[in-house]
Specification:
tRNA binding; 14 strands; 22% strand; ATP binding; nucleotide-binding; EC 2.8.1.4; transferase; 2 domains; six-stranded mixed beta sheet; alpha/beta; Rossmann fold; binds adenosine-5'-triphosphate
Length: 409
Amino acid sequence: METLVLVNLFHELALKGENRPFFLRKAKAHVREALKGTAARLEAEWPMALLFRLPQEAWPEAKERLKDTLGVEGFARVLRTPPDLKALEAALEETLARERFGSFRITAKRSDKAFPLTSPEIERLLGAFVKEKTGAKVQLKGPEREFVVRILPQAALLEVERHPGPGGLPPGVSGKVVALLSGGIDSPVAAYRLMRRGAEVVLVHFHPFPLLSGQSREKAKAIAERLARFQHRITLHLVPFSEVQRQIILEAPKAYRVVLYRRYMLRIAEAIAKEEGALALATGDSLGQVASQTLENLHVVNQAATLPVFRPLIGFDKVEIKAEAERIGTYAISILPDEECCTLFAPKHPVTRAQLSVALETESRLDTERLIALALEGREVVRYTWPGQKPLPRPQEEVPIMGHGPLDG
Ligand SMILES: Nc1ncnc2c1ncn2[C@@H]1O[C@H](COP(=O)(O)OP(=O)(O)OP(=O)(O)O)[C@@H](O)[C@H]1O
C-alpha cells in the first residue's frame, strides 16, 4: 500500500519578488533531501507545493522529518480521486468509517476553474454528505475536524491527516552566521531561530578541557547532531578555552572575568567567521536574564567584535525559550550535567555595569593575538549530516505521474 503526501511551502516564500524562483528551488531541494531514504518519489509539483508517493510503512518516519523541515508550512496525507463529487464522497466515506467528531467543516480549493461547481458549492454539497453520514454539525470556526479538498485539472485530493510544518526559510538562502553554542538551554534555540530565517549556521563551542572534563564537548556534539536535523549539514568547532581563562583569571579584576571571557569568545568566533565566510555572529543572550546579560555588559562585550552580533532571544523569557528548546528537541540534552567553562571560575559577585575602560586596561596586559592563535590551533572540527538513516525499501509498483497543473493555496 502507498501513501500520497502533499507538502505546502511556507507562505513567505511566495513573496520573494525576483528571487522567488531561487527561494522555491532551495525549499524544494531541502524537502526532497529531508525525505531521502524513505523511498518517497516526487509525483507532482506546483509553485508552492510538492506531492510525494511513498510506501505506507514510511509515513510515520516521513511525518517526523517533515515536521522539522524548514520552509514547510504544513503537510498532509491525501487521497487522490478523479475530479468529481461522487468519487470524493466515496473517499470521504472511507475516511469517516475510522473517525468520530462532533463538528467539522469542508474547505474546498479549486485550481481547475473549468470545474462545474464553485468552491462554496463543493463545500455545501460535501458538507451535507458528511453531516448525513455522521450526524456531526457544520462549524466554520474552530471545528473538531477540517476536511480540505483540492480540485485539480485531472484529479482531486482529499486531505485526511494534516500536520503543521515549522515554516521558515530553507537553509543557506540568507548567508552564513557563526553561532556561539554553550551547553545551556538558550544558545541552541538562538541557533535554530537563525536557521529558521534561512541562515546557514556554523557552531562554535568553547570548552575547558583539559583543565576540566570533556563533558561539555560531548553535550555540544549531541546538540549539534540534533540541530543538523534542521539544516541537514552542520559544522561544529570545539575550541579549547582554558588558556584564555587562565590568563584572564591571573590579570583581571575578579568581577570582570565573565565579561572578559565573552569578549575573547567573540574574538575567536569572529576569526572562525572569517575563515567560514560568515558575516555575523550569534549568541543566546536574553536581556537581563543573568548578570552577564545586562545592557551595560552586553555593550562592553560587543565592542570586542567587528561583525554584527545577533541575539535572537534578546526579548524572550526563560519559559518561552524552554518551550522552544523542548519543541526542537535540544532541551533534554541541555539539562544534562556538565562542567561548563565559564561557570566554574565565575565570581560570586560579577560586575553588572561593566566599563569598557577596565576591560581594555586588563586586555592591554594580555597577549590577545597569541591567545586567539592558540585557541584556533587546538580546535577540533566536527561535521554532521542528516538524514543518515539506512534507506527504507522502495515501493514495488509504479504509479503514473499526475499532470503539472496549477495548485492554488
Ligand atoms: N562555552 C561556551 N561556548 C560557546 N558559547 C558560549 C559559551 N558560554 C556562553 N556562550 C555564549 O554566550 C551566551 C550567554 O551565555 P550565558 O551562560 O551567560 O547565558 P545563558 O542564558 O545561560 O545561555 P545558554 O543557556 O545558551 O548557556 C550563550 O547563549 C552562548 O551564545
